[in-house]
UniProtKB/TrEMBL annotation:
Organism the protein comes from: Clostridium thermosuccinogenes
Domain of life where this protein originates: Bacteria
Gene3D superfamilies, per database record: 1.20.1260.10
Name of the protein: Rubrerythrin diiron-binding domain-containing protein
InterPro entries the UniProt entry points to: Ferritin-like, Ferritin-like_SF
Amino acid sequence: MKRIPDEFIISMVFKSAIDREELLIKKYEDYSKNMKSEELKEMIDEFKSEAQGHISMIKDKIMQLNLQGLG
C-alpha cells in the first residue's frame, strides 16, 4: 500500500481548518445581523475576531513550514 506524504496530509489539515474558520466567520456575520442585543452582538464579534486570528495563525504556520499552494 502506498504511503501518503506527510506534507500532503498537513496541507489538507490546514486547508480544512481554514475552511472551517471561514465558515464560522460567515455564520457569525449572519447571527450578528439578526441579533437585537448589543451585548450579544459584541460577543459574536469577539468570536468572529478570534476566528480571523485563527486563520492568521494557521497561515503563519503554513509559511513557517513552507507548504506550497496554501499560504
